[in-house]
Write a structure and sequence with these properties.
The chain is of the alpha/beta class. The protein has helices at 23-27, 30-33, 37-43, 78-90, 109-116, 176-192, 217-233, 247-251, 267-278, 285-290, 317-327, 343-346, 351-363, 400-407, 413-429; strands at 17-21, 47-50, 94-99, 103-105, 128-129, 150-153, 158-161, 168-170, 196-199, 238-241, 262-264, 299-302, 310-311, 334-335, 338-339, 367-371. The chain has two domains: 15-102 and 176-429, Alpha-Beta Barrel (TIM Barrel); 103-170, Oligo-1,6-glucosidase, domain 2. 34% of the residues lie in helices and 13% in strands. This is Glycosyl hydrolase family 13 catalytic domain-containing protein.
Length: 430
């Protein structure tokens, strides 16, 4: 029977402050995380989004998963993860992990078996073609990293489909066995105590001939099926949809309160950058009004800095070109249709501009992401000249000496941002 108790109350995720973080870059291991929780509490964090922690070849910063039910060895063990969860919960902080459900690493055992033989029982876990002509309207989202979406597999003399990096093979969500296996992954992490799952690249889940294979009705049906599965078994497990689309299209991922509880507000990024470029301190009222009209139990997730490029696909071409010229005049940080910039780098470490950016961000209705280190002014890392994936510059090592100094300095960037966050938390909960 459907568990409806939680539908009658507000979800914990409403107005959340979500700290998005790579464990290894922030505190080395899950064991080291416990000592850092007081820092996050003082910042006003209510949820930690642990960026991919799974065993992985790390070709795409962990979004190429080779094992869905384990912890990468350099981060610790499952027991270490459980201990981290308990201590986070004791500190009043929820924990979200990535659920990469569109694709696996090509080093995942399912793909290794499927790619070795056309007769493999795992063959239909993925999408294959003899001609590489299917789904021709689906865009190549990583043109700098691969020539096309169909990748040749010499062992069986055909092609597998890859929406993103060539080392990420798309799963076949029309196969009910894929659904069953992926639900068992959710069961595993919920049993450990995970509170929420970020549905990575979820709009690309279902592929259909003659379409762009993005945001299809069948994809919404699949999301509803995942949500129903969770609601029937558990209470208050939250789903966040990664959807890089317009406000109108993104709203569809809330459904009628029966799809995702949270959806990224990608169009906000362009609006914030345009305001910062013009020296403005408030966003247009008309844009804020477009965010209304979502189910009461749902929320937008607003952000500026995060682990991916600042996507500008929702801006018109003239606006976008102006933003590129203003914030990345040397063309050092372009990626896809965006720029891979840390807030401090983008704003030339001008604390007043950074605070203005955070003030606007935190003033938008909804939940909010703080990308680790942005609160202390972390900048982009330098990259080798041959590194085409500029997003790699966003994942630098957190400097605890700088953080320690700023925590004690009443005029520091950290203190001013934490004051904005904590005042917001008080007002939202009063």
């Amino acid at each position: 029977m459907l568990n409806t108790a939680h539908s009658e109350k507000k979800y914990w995720c409403k107005n959340a402050i979500i700290y998005e973080v790579y464990v290894d870059k922030f505190c080395d291991t899950f064991n080291g995380f416990a000592d850092k929780l007081p820092y996050l509490v003082s910042l006003g964090v209510t949820c930690i989004h642990v960026l991919p922690h799974y065993p992985s070849p790390m070709i795409d910063d962990g979004y190429d998963i080779a094992d869905y039910t384990s912890v990468r060895k350099d981060l610790g063990t499952i027991e270490d993860f459980k201990d981290f969860l308990l201590k986070a919960h004791d500190a009043g902080i929820k924990v979200m992990v990535d659920f990469v459900l569109n694709h696996t690493s090509t080093q995942h055992p399912w793909f290794l078996e499927a790619s070795n033989s056309a007769l493999s029982s795992k063959r239909d876990f993925y999408l294959w073609s003899k001609t590489a002509t299917e789904y021709a309207k689906a865009p190549n989202l990583f043109p700098d990293l691969k020539e096309k979406n169909w990748i040749y597999n010499p062992k069986t003399d055909n092609y597998y489909f890859s929406t993103f990096h060539h080392a990420q093979a798309d799963l076949n969500w029309n196969n009910p066995d894929v659904f069953d296996q992926m639900m068992s992954v959710l069961d595993f992490w919920v049993a450990l105590g995970v509170d929420a799952f970020r549905l990575d690249a979820v709009s690309h889940l279902i592929k259909k001939e003659g379409t762009i294979c993005d945001g299809l009705p069948e994809t919404h049906n699949a999301i509803k099926k995942v949500r129903t599965y969770l609601d029937r078994k558990y209470d208050n497990i939250v789903l966040l949809a990664e959807v890089g689309d317009s406000i109108k299209e993104s709203k569809k991922y809330f459904g009628k309160g029966d799809e995702c509880h949270l959806v990224y507000n990608f169009p906000l990024v362009g609006r914030l950058l345009l305001a910062l470029k013009k020296g403005e301190a408030v966003l247009p009222k008309k844009f804020i009004e477009t965010l209304s009209g979502i189910p009461e139990s749902c929320d937008w997730v607003n952000f500026l800095g995060h682990h991916d490029e600042m996507a500008l696909g929702m801006t018109v071409k003239k606006e976008r070109q102006g933003l590129f010229l203003h914030f990345d005049p040397e063309n050092k940080y372009r990626f896809a249709i965006g720029i891979s910039l840390r807030i401090a780098t983008m704003l030339h470490k001008n604390n007043q501009d950074i605070i203005r950016a955070f003030g606007m961000l935190l003033g938008v209705p909804g939940s909010c992401i703080i990308y680790y280190g942005d609160e202390i002014g972390m900048e982009n890392e330098s990259l080798p000249l041959d590194q085409k994936d500029t997003r790699k510059s966003l994942g630098g090592k957190f400097d605890w000496s700088v953080a320690g100094q700023q925590v004690l300095d009443n005029n520091s960037l950290f203190l001013q941002i934490s004051n904005i966050i904590n005042n917001r938390n008080v007002n939202k909960n009063s």
